[in-house]
Amino acid sequence: MWDPAQYLAFADHRARPFYELVGRVRASEPRRVVDVGCGPGSLTSSLSARWPSAVVEAFDSSPEMVEAARAAGVDARVDDVTTWEPLPDTDVVVSNAVLQWVVSHPSIVSRWVAALPSGAWLAFQVPGNYADASHRLIREVAGEGLAHVFRAEKPVLDPVEYADLLGDCAVADVWETTYVQRLSGPDPVLEWVSGTALRPVRAALSSTDWDAYVAELAPRLREAYPQRADGTTWFPFRRIFAVAQV
């Protein structure tokens, strides 16, 4: 279950990759713009502001996120990224930090590219920090007993692999950025991953087992990401971006 409030706790940090992604989409007057995995809808309104004449479509697989998006005034619905198909007038598809949850997403991306009209734009970004200490420690503390909750040890492709996937498009723009984020609080990295990477672990554990898991994970994260003298913590976060015009 997604917790919109926990996800929004780092809204500024999570918004920056979205704006940098959409900033590379050069569509002028798209007919339909789709926010795939809109979450709580906090960024969907910016798509309407940029393309005011477009129909903006938004969906998410989480009823909790959709409820939060609707409360924010976004006309969102519950839908499944694995079965969704773009309508013939879809000129822009944006997916922000969603596809890493779907093991089959490379084939889904290829399917969308084939279905989109000529000249349409597809833009997505995914986290690329699965080999970093944060995710490595999450898996280590989980152990073999919870190995099934992780979709894959490396659930995203490397940038060159995404470039190959999109290489036949008219535009294939793939890059990566590492944001060195300044977090605050006694366990800031734990708080960060609680809204995303730890979600499937939390769902698989009872309250008692979850408390024990967090009690073991928290000090390991503090050691891996030490607090500075001013009370803040540096958290490097790699993101992989891909923008294509079909």
From TrEMBL:
Its EC number is 2.1.1.144. The keyword Transferase applies. InterPro entries: SAM-dependent_MTases_sf (IPR029063), Trans_acon_MeTrfase_C (IPR023149). GO terms for molecular function: trans-aconitate 2-methyltransferase activity. It comes from the Bacteria. One of its GO terms (biological process) is methylation. Keywords: Methyltransferase, Transferase. The keyword Methyltransferase applies. Pfam families: Methyltransf_23. NCBIfam families: PRK14103.1. This is Trans-aconitate 2-methyltransferase. It comes from Lentzea kristufekii.
